[in-house]
Amino acid sequence: MQTHVVIIGGGYGGLRVIESLAKHPNITLTLIDKHPYHYLQTEAYGYIAGRFDIRDIAIDLEQWCHGFEKGVSFVHERAHVIDYQSKKLQTDTKEISFDYLVIATGAQTNFFSFIEGLREHSHGIKKLERAYKFRQKFEDLIYKQIQHKIPLQEEINLAIGGAGLSGVEVAAEMANSIHTYAKTIGERTRKIKIHLIDASETILPGMSSFIIKNTHARLQELGVEIHTNTFIASLDKEFIYFKDGSKLHYHFMIFTGGIKAANFTHCIDGTKNKAEQLLPNEYLNIGERSDIFAIGDCVAIRDSKGEILPPTAQVAEKSAEYVAQNILDRLYNKEPKVFDAKVSGVFVALGGNYAVGEMFGFIKVKGYLAFLLKKAITYAYYLGLHLRINTGYKNRIQTMKKRG
């Protein structure tokens, strides 16, 4: 008898669930996503600054699913309603039954309502389309500089609200790109300033002193203007206004200062926090349902000590691997273990061939070596996706030939 596992969300966690379960012949899998692509959000910093192309950060989900020999299908629709009693899910056009359901819908930028004008005048990077629009704005600015369409005396301020991991990586990569463009644009690049703004006392709040210290030094070396203990009161199309009464004239702004769960969590029965993230039990189940799980950024995940784990791709994948094993344990009448995971390490990309990182709590690296380690980790993930994509492409070609 086949067990049907439905996964909502084609992010890091959703794909890892499928990778973990697809090899079991008695399990069929259905992936549902409103987008037809998987977005490698961890690489957004390089895409925005022009270092990566669209092919480096997005892959086709349907073709990826075709990369498995059998038992994996993709539904490119929105999920709307869960019928808990009948164990059915309603999408735009379908009613899909499930034995187990995994909610992996991710998160979106939280444009705080108490900052007037934030949503209207800034860009997030949690969604591919927003990263794409910001890249266009950045490239348009460089184009205008090359064309001498911006007066030489005019200072150009690019603002990044939020000095967490995403904000720091975007600031560093953009600043490094500007240094690179100096070889063609010349002195005009001196008028382009990157401003990194955060209300916290330091950049990268919650990270180790080693990472904070070396990241701060690298950002200063790149010419990034760092504003900590700085509270944004409001924005209009020309100025960012701070609570201390000062203001900053800016050309455009990225906001990475907060996240909230994707909108799908609104239709799920279960306890949520202020960021609308689901609060699961120790088995990552939602409510009292042992057949419904939540993983990744749409859920507030805690370790065995009760500490909240950061909303990163690494945590999404670890929670996905756990849920896959939990499902297998239940299928084979084994008692599932309580979820317990910790962050194995963190790497911060800091422009060009430079990074800072820690692994396993005691290995500390910076500079080119850290860049190589981060690149190796990213490449391994990227290669796995593309091997699956290539297989999917070949499988589809063979299927089309058989049909005629």
Short summary of the structure?
The chain has 404 residues and is α/β, with parallel strands linked by helices. 33% of the residues lie in helices and 23% in strands. Strand 6 and strand 7 (88-91) form a beta hairpin.
Please, could you describe this protein's structure?
This protein has 404 residues and is of the alpha/beta class. It has 2 domains: 252 residues, FAD/NAD(P)-binding domain; 138 residues, FAD/NAD(P)-binding domain, CATH 3.50.50. Helix content is 33%, strand content 23%. The longest helix is centred in the C-terminal third of the chain and has 36 residues.
Supply the helix-strand structural class: alpha/beta
Count of helix runs: 9
> Which percent range describes the beta-strand content?
15-25%
| CATH top level class name of the largest domain | Alpha Beta
Summarize the main sheet.
5 strands, parallel
* Radius of gyration from CA coordinates: 22 Å
Overall shape: it is globular
In the CATH hierarchy, what is the architecture of the largest domain at level 2? Answer: 3-Layer(bba) Sandwich
First-last Cα distance: 33 Å
Number of domains: 2
Order the strands across the largest sheet as they lie in space: 5-2-1-9-19
Average pLDDT taken over every residue: 91
CATH topology title of the largest domain: FAD/NAD(P)-binding domain
Low-confidence stretches: none
Write down how many β-strands occur, each being a DSSP E stretch of 2 or more residues. 22
